[in-house]
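3.2 Worked example (two chains)
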Amino acid sequence: QVQLVESGGGLVQAGGSLTLSCAASGGTFSNYAMGWFRQAPGKEREFVAAISWSGRTTYYASSVKGRFTISRDNAKNTVYLQMKSLKPEDTAVYYCAATLSLGDSYVFTGRYEYRYWGQGTQVTVSS
C-alpha cells in the first residue's frame, strides 16, 4: 500500500510560481510511475503531468506544457511539480498519483490508470 502526501500549495498572484511536492511511503518508490492531476470546482479531474520511474520520460497536458515541470527524486521518495507563469485558470486542487511502472518509456495520462492517490493540495491563482 502506497501513501502519498502532497504539500506546497497556496495562494499566488498570476504570473507567479509554486512548487508542489508529493512524498511517498509504503512501497518501493522507483517501482512506480507518477502523475499530477488537478480538479477545479465543478469540473472533472484532469491530467497535468506524468513521469516514468526514473524520470527519463515525462509528458504534459497541452495547457501546462512549457510552464510546468515534473521531476522526481527517488532517493527522497518524492515527486515534484514546478509551476511557473501561473494563470487564474490553474486554480484547482492538485493531486499526485502513483501506479506500477511498465518500463521507463511508459507514462500514464488517464486517471483510472493510477491506483494510489494523495489527498490533494489547493492552489489558488489570483488575477
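3.2.1 Second chain
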Amino acid sequence: QVQLVESGGGLVQAGGSLRLSCAASGRTFRSSSMGWFRQAPGKEREFVAAITWSGSSTYYADSVKGRFTISRDNAKNTVYLQMNSLKPEDTAVYYCAAGRGLFVSPQTAPNLDEYDYWGQGTQVTVSS
C-alpha cells in the first residue's frame, strides 16, 4: 500500500506561481516513478508531468512544458510540482500518482494505467 497526500494548492492570479507537494508513505518511495495529473470540471483527467525513480528523466505535457517543473526528494519521500506563469486554463484538481515501476517513458507516462496509487487531489484555481 502507498499513501499519497498532496498539498500546496490554492487561489493565484494569472502569471503567478505555486508549488505542489506530494508526500508518500508505505511502499518504498524511491522504487516508484511518480506523476502529476489534473482534472478540470467536466473534463477527463489529463497528464501533466512525470519523473523516474532517480529523478534523472522528466516528461511534460506540451501545455505545461517550459512553465512547470517536476522534481523529487527521495530522502523526504516527496515529489514536487513547481508551477510558474500560471494561466486560467491551469485551473483543476491536481493529483499525484505512484508508478508501477521505476521508469516511465514519453509514451507510457501519460497513461493512467501506468500508475497504481493516487492521492486525494489538491485544488488549484487561477484567476484572470
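3.3 Remarks
The mean pLDDT is 96.
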